[in-house]
Amino acid sequence: MYKVKIFVTLRESVIDPAGDAAMKELKRSEFPEVESLRIGKYIEVTMAKTDKNVEEAVQDMCRNLLVNTEVEDYRFEIEEVVAE
């Protein structure tokens, strides 16, 4: 079995209104040390072992469904886990 952790972030060139709003609120809440903030997504997928290449399968999932590649970047980590 595989555990896949996918981290999705907006591209630097894309405006992040949620991040801007959160940053303004943090500064208002006495956290002046916050210089920037961007909000992304974390996706966790558990996959059964397969004959397919796991990395290719995850790339396909991200490109075709999980990530808007026009405005988002992503990276992922694959961990093989032993069923207990």
UniProtKB/TrEMBL annotation:
EC number(s) reported in the record: 6.3.5.3
Family annotation (InterPro entries): PurS (IPR003850), PurS-like_sf (IPR036604)
Transmembrane spans: none
Single Gene Ontology MF annotation: phosphoribosylformylglycinamidine synthase activity
Keywords carried by this UniProt record: ATP-binding, Cytoplasm, Ligase, Nucleotide-binding, Purine biosynthesis
Localization: Cytoplasm
Annotated pathway: Purine metabolism; IMP biosynthesis via de novo pathway; 5-amino-1-(5-phospho-D-ribosyl)imidazole from N(2)-formyl-N(1)-(5-phospho-D-ribosyl)glycinamide: step 1/2
Reactions catalysed according to its record: N(2)-formyl-N(1)-(5-phospho-beta-D-ribosyl)glycinamide + L-glutamine + ATP + H2O = 2-formamido-N(1)-(5-O-phospho-beta-D-ribosyl)acetamidine + L-glutamate + ADP + phosphate + H(+)
Enzyme class: ligase
Pfam family, one: PurS
Function: Part of the phosphoribosylformylglycinamidine synthase complex involved in the purines biosynthetic pathway. Catalyzes the ATP-dependent conversion of formylglycinamide ribonucleotide (FGAR) and glutamine to yield formylglycinamidine ribonucleotide (FGAM) and glutamate. The FGAM synthase complex is composed of three subunits. PurQ produces an ammonia molecule by converting glutamine to glutamate. PurL transfers the ammonia molecule to FGAR to form FGAM in an ATP-dependent manner.
Family that this chain belongs to: Belongs to the PurS family.
Subunit details: Part of the FGAM synthase complex composed of 1 PurL, 1 PurQ and 2 PurS subunits.
Protein name: Phosphoribosylformylglycinamidine synthase subunit PurS
Name of the coding gene: purS
